[in-house]
Amino acid sequence: QLQLVESGGGLVQPGGSLRLSCAASGFTFHYHTVGWFRQAPGKGREGISCFSVIGGTTNYADSVKGRFTISRDATKNMVYLQMHNLKPEDTAVYYCAAVAGDKWCSSGGMDYWGRGTLVTVSS
Prior knowledge:
11 strands, globular, 123 residues
């Protein structure tokens, strides 16, 4: 069964850090593009980071650029999102998604989705 599972969400104070993890089962990230998306309460899903394993390229939304870093551990078949200097507006459910090939990350174009992990930034 092809599956993505996110973990690492939680409650953090403004200015704090969290690392989200995305574990793949049933396939490997070797030939995929992996993205992190988020959906805040009452808002649409936003793409925040995209990593092409094949092309080796990474992209970030302006809202997280310089604060978030996407990375991959091939030996563990995991993708991570390291988040620093978190702000209340980062509060959202964060989703990991993957698409086969070297492609652009878009909400409508991903093949696999996790169920999400909630990040709450509040004092």
